[in-house]
Amino acid sequence: MEFSEIGEKFEGLNADQVYNLAKFGKEILGINGSVTLARCLLEVIPTLMDDNNYREAGCIVLAIAKAAIELDHQCWGEHKTLLGLTGVNIDDYCYGLKGAQEIIVYGNED
Fold this sequence. Notes:
Helix content: over 70%
Number of strands: 0
Structural class: mainly alpha
Shape: globular
Strand content: under 5%
């Protein structure tokens, strides 16, 4: 994708806004990657949903977990690691992928 297309893809955001959004997303993913992020968020949802005072927070956490799961599905669909898809290198730390950017599926000839 060309830089000129980024504003269109992000519905007219300017370069500073796209930068800040990307920086925020990279920081969130850098905490522990999409898989662990989704798992940890899903673990707290039952507690939040059991308490009426935190039900709205539970819905927000669920939406964030869903977005993390969708990102993981996008990685697998495009056969890219989180590093290859987003530039976030947490996979090396979590899974020892040694900088791999592609997911190679063995035994599945396309």
